[in-house]
Amino acid sequence: EIVLTQSPATLSLSPGERATLSCRASQSVSSYLAWYQQKPGQAPRLLIYDASNRATGIPARFSGSGSGTDFTLTISSLEPEDFAVYYCQQRSNWPPTFGPGTKVDIK
Amino acid sequence: QVQLVESGGGVVQPGGSLRLSCAASGFTFSSYGMHWVRQAPGKGLEWVAFIRYDGSNKYYADSVKGRFTISRDNSKNTLYLQMNSLRAEDTAVYYCAKDLPNCTGGVCYSFDYWGQGTLVTVSS
Q1: Do B44 and A49 touch (CB under 8 A)?
Q2: Per-residue CA distances from B107 to A1, B22, B102, B123 (Å)
Q3: 3-state secondary structure of B60
Q4: Which of B95, B109, B114 sits opposite A96 (nearest CB)?
Q5: What's the confidence (pLDDT) of residue B5?
Q6: Whole-number mean pLDDT of chain B?
Q7: Which of A37, B22, B46, B62 has the smallest CB count inside 10 Å?
Q8: Is A6 within 8 Å of chain B by CB?
Q9: How many Å apart are CA A20 and CA B14, to the nearest integer?
């Protein structure tokens, strides 16, 4: 099973700042990595699939990059609604697995 | 718009059974694979099971294999999860999720739409 590690565990930033979240895989997942956003009491929402493709309706301030074992989710300028937990997920190898999450909170 | 609405959660004793349902609308349900994903209280996400668009193939996480059964009724646009021999560690919010489309082999194992979830609590 592929293990995903996310860093940092918590990111404290102010609105308008740039957020950079990292996801590292225990072995190569090629480009088969997705990012999800989850707010308290809500279901996860797909942001990015296959490393760099924005899902339907996702604002352009969200971007994904990387391949192999190292991936990054960047939020170019944080909006108040972006403070949430972000999970990465790989679909390269069965079973699909998720990272433990990065919480982006207000500084 | 795509809507997924889960139901059937509740409190059940260890060793008991529960059946979850997920009513789908806003897309051609019979054309897409579907998943169940769960989240224990305060914890991360865990994939549970997948069923192909026509029900021909089903896959399970090792943690639930032999105890849970995923099924679907395309005439009713509904996904199910039959959960037997429940354990305390099965306590979680269970989400149904639609498979991302257009992947090789007909299954993507990424999730583009999610329901709001239903809470299952296994406790005596």
Answers
A1: no
A2: 18, 19, 8, 35
A3: strand
A4: B109
A5: 98
A6: 96
A7: B62
A8: no
A9: 42
In whole angstroms, what is the distance from residue B49 CA to residue B68 CA? Answer: 8
In angstroms, rounded to a whole number, what is the distance separating the alpha carbons of residues A50 and A62? 14
- Each residue's pLDDT tens digit, B67-107: 999 999 999 999 999 999 999 999 999 999 999 987 877 78
CA atoms within 13 A on the CB side of B95: 24
Q: What angle do CA B119, B20, B107 make, to 5 degrees?
A: 105
Instruction: Please identify among residues 12-51 of chain B the ones whose CB lies closer than 8 Å to any CB of chain A.
Output: 44-47
pLDDT tens-digit series, residues A22-72: 999 999 999 999 999 999 999 999 999 999 999 999 999 999 999 999 999
% of chain A beyond a pLDDT of 90:
99
DSSP state of B74: T
Within 13 A of A42's CA, how many CA atoms are on the CB side? 13
**Chain A / chain B CB contacts < 8 angstroms:** 52
Nearest CA in chain B to A91: B109
The SS3 of residue B88 is helix
